[in-house]
Specification:
This protein is mostly helical. The chain has helices spanning 16-19, 22-30, 37-60, 68-80.
Amino acid sequence: MLRGSTTHWLTPSRALEQDLPAADRDRYTATTSAARPEDVRIAARHSWQWSRELAAEAADRRLATYPAELHHEIAALPATQGREG
């Protein structure tokens, strides 16, 4: 929606190269990983950060609202949890 392309919403990976700019494709790639605990944690942090940025961008454009305070609380959790491996 933020990039003006909703054609492939049901299958978001389809035509990714045509639907999204290179910067978004790179960010998307950073949200995936091999099934290794540390790699998954890194990908999850990238995914959460990008999701927050997209939500903020949508809110700035008045396309959606989001609970900013709740986002800040949730963002603090990965830094303090999930280190037991």
